[in-house]
Design brief:
This protein is of the alpha/beta class. It has helices at residues 16-37, 52-64, 85-90, 113-118, 121-134, 149-168, 190-197, 206-215, 218-231, 239-259, 280-286, 298-310, 423-433, 447-457, 470-487, and strands spanning 3-9, 42-45, 68-75, 95-99, 140-143, 172-176, 200-204, 233-234, 261-266, 291-294, 318-327, 334-338, 353-356, 368-371, 377-386, 391-401, 415-419, 438-442, 460-464. Strand 9, helix 11 and strand 10 form a beta-alpha-beta unit.
Length: 488
């Protein structure tokens, strides 16, 4: 199981009795946090740190431990920060600095200097915070009593983000075909993606998939069809088209398992050997946590897999989406988001229907797909773009709404939303930031989750929310450009 090291700082200036009590308190706190985070990762108590050598050894161990996704640092007593310099320079894991103390309340009637010397987090954490800032260490700080719900919530959010960062390392992304011809924003530096995030993105010829499709047995297809009819309403007489998609998904299942794939892309411009563009096949796979990007958009595919990992076990939906068209009724502007086929059924506000309709793009047979109206509620839309010398995440807060009227002739799944703070500001800010027409939408995550991921990966982030002002927003973008140029 993945784990988080709980590291407690002190120094050898204190006597054995004080250090023994600090060790006891630290173990108790680690055990409590483990009980609150065990569904994400186990919190592992480590021996209290008293010297520079111990600190460096422990941080090196955490960095080398493949199961360690993060560290939680806490200074029980004062801990001179120079002893942490080499340790922090060796640390390669996300860090949460927990600014808390063992006791919730002061023992006003009995407090003495022994108590003061033992419980110096207010003192020691400031010293530790200084050296982190001096070294330029990116970390999250959670301040408050460690048993309070608000603090636990912040630690859990940090742990989810750390698990997502860990998931990135060695994550494999398959591109069937390449980027859609002449499209700019979906392209990107795959080598830099692996250097920065650990995403191993590789091209596979569509023939690699076609070969597996041709090997799929009737029994595999029948099993997949049963899965479809158990989950969705069959709303077509063209069962042959649905069975074709079932074969595609069975083939993708084999391929994903064999190649250890977490996300994939396809493109309608490269379907040689396939009779249809994958529709329900891609949709049903997305619902199982696999990232997807159309037209070779590997960044959206990878980001989708990562965000689904971050949202694990949390209420809500996460998946690929495309900005398509608008209802520009003044004061009530709405965005209609959809795609040719590939909208994940996790967004279904109604039971999805399996339908077969004509698709002019791709010049193939009519593909089977899932059609449904979308969910409502607060969410985010997140786009990753390649700025040439860095990646940027654009995160917009949105409100998903029920569609005002039926759309009986629209043969695709769809969502509708309002962008915050209003259409004119939010849409303009997205365009100023260079946000793509592909995004990952989530009702399970918030902009705070994306902020944590961006901090842990040192990724540039811009957020569009109900406080966004375009003048300030443009100035912030200019400062980000200046910052990137100064970095070289």
């Amino acid at each position: 199981m993945k784990k988080i090291y709980f590291i407690t700082g002190s120094q050898d200036l204190y006597g054995e009795e004080t250090l023994a009590q600090a060790e006891k308190d630290s173990k108790e706190m680690a055990a409590f946090l483990d009980s609150k985070l065990s569904d994400i990762a186990s919190v592992v108590h480590t021996p209290i740190v008293k010297t520079a050598a111990e600190a460096e050894k422990l941080c090196a161990e955490a960095s080398a431990d493949g199961d360690c996704i993060a560290v939680i640092m806490w200074m029980h007593t004062f801990s001179p920060a120079k002893m942490w310099i080499r340790a922090l320079q060796a640390l390669r894991k996300p860090m949460l600095h927990l600014h808390t103390q063992y006791n919730e309340k002061l023992p006003y009637d009995s407090i003495d200097m022994d108590f003061m010397n033992l419980n110096q987090s207010a003192h020691g954490d400031r010293e530790f915070g200084f050296i982190c800032t001096r070294l330029g260490i990116k970390r999250e700080v959670a301040a408050g009593y460690y048993k309070h719900d608000a603090v636990i919530s912040k630690i859990r959010r940090f742990a989810y983000a750390a698990a997502a960062v860990d998931f990135c390392k060695g994550m494999r992304v398959a591109m069937f075909g390449n980027n859609m011809r002449d499209v700019a924003v979906t392209d990107g530096d795959r080598v830099e993606s692996e250097i920065k995030y650990g995403w191993n993105v590789n091209y596979y010829g569509i023939g690699d998939l076609v070969k597996i499709v041709n090997e799929v047995t009737d029994a595999e297809t029948d099993a997949k069809m049963k899965e479809y009819t158990d989950k969705y309403d069959m709303d077509t007489d063209n069962i042959a088209a649905v069975r074709e998609q079932a074969k595609y998904e069975a083939a993708l299942d084999r391929f994903i398992a064999k190649e250890n794939i977490s996300a994939f892309t396809d493109t309608f411009q490269d379907l040689h050997g396939l009779n249809q563009l994958p529709g329900i096949a891609a949709q049903n796979i997305m619902a199982k946590g696999i990232g997807f990007g159309p037209e070779g958009d590997y960044k959206t595919a990878a980001l989708g897999a990562v965000m689904q990992k971050m949202a694990a076990d949390r209420e809500g939906s996460t998946g690929f989406m495309e900005d398509y068209t608008y209802d520009l009724t003044e004061g009530e502007e709405l965005e209609l988001a959809a795609h040719m086929l590939e909208v994940s059924p996790v967004f279904a506000g109604t039971k999805p229907k399996i339908q077969v309709h004509h698709l002019g793009i791709g010049n193939k047979s009519d593909p089977a797909r899932l059609v449904f109206d979308g969910v409502s509620g607060n969410g985010i839309a997140v786009s990753m773009i390649d700025m040439g010398n860095r990646f940027r995440l654009v995160c917009a807060e949105i409100e998903l709404v029920k569609q005002p009227e039926p759309m009986p002739k629209l043969p695709v799944a769809r969502l509708m939303w309002k962008i915050k703070p209003d259409f004119a500001t939010g849409a303009a800010a997205w365009i100023y930031a260079g946000g793509a027409h592909h995004a990952v939408v989530s009702t399970a995550l918030t902009s705070e989750d994306i902020r944590l991921f961006a901090k842990m990966t040192d990724t540039e982030l811009v957020i569009i929310d109900d406080k966004t002002d375009l003048n300030t927003f443009e100035q912030a973008l200019e400062m980000l450009d200046l910052k990137s140029k100064m970095k070289g």
